[in-house]
Structure formats: C-alpha cells, structure tokens
Amino acid sequence: MSHIPPNLLECSTIWSEVYRALIARYNYTIRGQFFGHTHNDQFVVYTHSITKEPTSILLEAPSLSPIMSHQPAFRVYEVNRKSLRVTNYLQYSANLVEANKHKDNDVPWQLSYNFTN
C-alpha cells in the first residue's frame, strides 16, 4: 500500500523498475497492491517482462478529497481470510451538490458499483 503508483511519470523511474521486478519475483506471495494519488478509479495489470504473462494487478482508488471534477469516494475491500486475496470491493461515492443540500451535514453516500458485478 502506497500513495504514488509506480506506473506514473511522477514516480522515480528507478524505483518503479525495482518495484515491478519485486512484484514479478514475489507475485505468488503478494496479495494486493493498493494506491491512491491519481483520484481515479482504475487498475493496472502488470506482466512479466519476458513472458508477458500477467503477474499482478494494481488497484488505484479514488479519494475522499474532491479535486478537479472528481467527487469524493471510498472503497471497501472484501478479503478471503484464509488466502488473504481480495475477492471483491464496493465503491461508494457522494455527489457534493446533493450533499450540500443537506443541512444536517449528513453526506449521502451511494454505492457506485460492486466490482464482481
């Protein structure tokens, strides 16, 4: 879990290359990669540099902080207790225009989607 994903230009090239090599080497041990920074809801599939086989997936979650045109959002991960693998996640968001209409300051969070659906 970290802030700036290694797939961005803002990340040091050397750090990114070493990180990707570690992910490829320990892909049977690593159970998830979780990042933020971009405020986007996206994922990246890593592949082995030689075989091009998928080795891992990196999940980038949106942020509670609204920025640019992004609404506040958060994610709840479901994890298998035995394997520690992420099995699903639920993405929630809030419409700030609607939230500002509530005088009680209760933000109306709504389920944006269920990943497995």
Polypeptide structure, described:
The chain is an alpha+beta fold and 117 residues long. It folds into two domains: 1-61, no CATH class; 67-117, no CATH class. The chain is built from two helices and six strands. The chain has helices at 13-25, 96-99, and strands at 33-35, 42-47, 54-60, 73-79, 86-93, 110-114. Strands 1-3-2 form a three-stranded mixed sheet, with helices on one face. Strands 4-5-6 form a three-stranded antiparallel sheet, with no helix packed on it. A hairpin with a 6-residue loop joins strand 4 and strand 5. The longest helix has 13 residues, at 13-25. The protein is globular, with a radius of gyration of 17 Å. The two termini are 25 Å apart. The mean pLDDT is 85.
Topology diagram in text:
Layout: H1 13-25, E1 33-35, E2 42-47, E3 54-60, E4 73-79, E5 86-93, H2 96-99, E6 110-114
Can you tag this structure with a few keywords?
globular, single chain, three-stranded mixed β-sheet, three-stranded antiparallel β-sheet, 2 helices, alpha+beta, 117 residues
Please summarize what this structure is.
With 117 residues, this protein is an alpha+beta fold. Helix content is 15%, strand content 31%.
Q: Approximately how much beta-strand content do the residues carry?
A: 25-35%
Distance between the termini: 25 Å
Quantity of strands, as a count: 6
Which segments are poorly predicted (pLDDT under 50) over 5 or more consecutive residues? none
Give Rg in angstroms. 17 Å
Biggest sheet layout: 3 strands, mixed
Q: Give the helix tally.
A: 2
Succession of helices and strands: HEEEEEHE
